[in-house]
Amino acid sequence: MKRNIFLAFLLFWMGLFTASAHTVEEHARIPAHGFAVMAEGGEFQPYTFSRHAVGDNEIQIEILYAGICHSDLHHVASDWGKEEYPLVPGHEIVGRVVKIGKNVTKFKVGDIAGVGCLVNACGECEFCLMGLEQYCPNRVLTYHDHDKYHDNEQTQGGYSDTLVVSQNFAIKVPENADIEKIAPLLCAGITTWSPIHYMNVKKGDKIGIAGFGGLGHMAVKYAVALGAEVTVFDITEAKREDAKRMGAVRYVNVTNPEELNGLDNSLNYVLSTVPAKYDPAMYMKMLKINGQMAIVGLPAIKNMPSISVLSFVIHGNRKVFGSQIGGIKETQEMLDYSVAHNLYPEVEVIKADAAAINEAYKKVQAGEVKFRYVIDMKTLKHAD
Ligand SMILES: [Zn+2]
Ligand SMILES: [Zn+2]
């Protein structure tokens, strides 16, 4: 009898010990390896940090690919205000689910998931309830933010090997998708898809796409798929043939003023993706009456264009508005549509190597990438 009591006690304590060991393991932070810049405008170097443990409603993904968005360059350079360093950019992410929290139903281990600019939001405010989580005052951005739902930790992005995210903010990626091309859809894709649908662009409409880079080329593909007549505007000759190949009816090199002749009052819509100094009024003038112009490109503060009130009055009864990425439901719709219709970004895959990323940044800055760099995070090598 005594022996049985002793055994029962022993088992009880062993149970407690394993339970607590288990708890410690569950709450331990997850090591992460990637690339960071250590100061404003710095170059990338290997960087080791950690992610918070996987919560009950969260998933952990092993990152397979991360896109290089022009916004990443702006954050690295503190172009939109002082950033916090070390900074790991990356908000175009695709990866494989390696762990799920106990309440997760949307994903199972082994699924492919995408993550864009958002990793969380309140879920209760008017914006969240409308599916516009990107405007939630308590949203959490994938990087260059603090996570109010996790001890206000600094968030770090996708130029890394692993990420923990709420299941509600991860996008399901079909197994038959072309995985190496998926990542840019999570920012470049949704940022152009959302205003094109908000403006209700349809077959036969004339739309101008200003800026023909990572965002612009996705805008061209979506507008062409809808049957719109697309005019592309950029500042180089090097992309003229690409625009035609993607289905644009016209390519305008805005550095040749004669190419702009006859374009005033000719377009139903304009979508501006330009990330550098330019004159938005030039495009406003091209709108027909009741035309709409959406602005998604955001130049550095020092190069920020402005539109005079005079322009609005002179070119009256046209609407000009801005747009930020898109909500989660809309992002899922964009991704499903893109995969089903074979509408992928054109990517150049580079190795997960600091020198390769630094080189890619120079090319993006010079407008020389066709059309998006994607870092193959599977090629990351680290010492520990
Ligand atoms: Zn972006
Ligand atoms: Zn909210």
- Helix/strand/pairing class, anyone? alpha/beta
Ligands: zinc ion
* CATH level 4 superfamily of the largest domain: Medium-chain alcohol dehydrogenases, catalytic domain
Task: Please name the CATH architecture of the largest domain.
Answer: Alpha-Beta Complex
- Average the pLDDT over all residues and give the rounded result: 94
Largest sheet: 7 strands, mixed
Number of strands: 19
How many helices? The count is: 10
Give structural notes.
Strands 3, 4, 5, 10, 11, 18 and 19 form a seven-stranded mixed sheet that branches. Strands 14-13-12-15-16-17 form a six-stranded parallel sheet. It has a two-stranded antiparallel sheet with strand order 1-2. 27% of the residues lie in helices and 26% in strands. Helix 4 packs across helix 5 and helix 4 packs across helix 9. It starts with a helix and ends in an 8-residue tail after the last strand. The protein folds into two domains: 215 residues, Quinone Oxidoreductase, Chain A, domain 1 (Alpha-Beta Complex), CATH 3.90.180.10; 135 residues, NAD(P)-binding Rossmann-like Domain (Rossmann fold, 3-Layer(aba) Sandwich). The protein is an alpha/beta fold and 384 residues long. The structure holds zinc ion (2 copies). One zinc ion (ZN) binds next to loops.
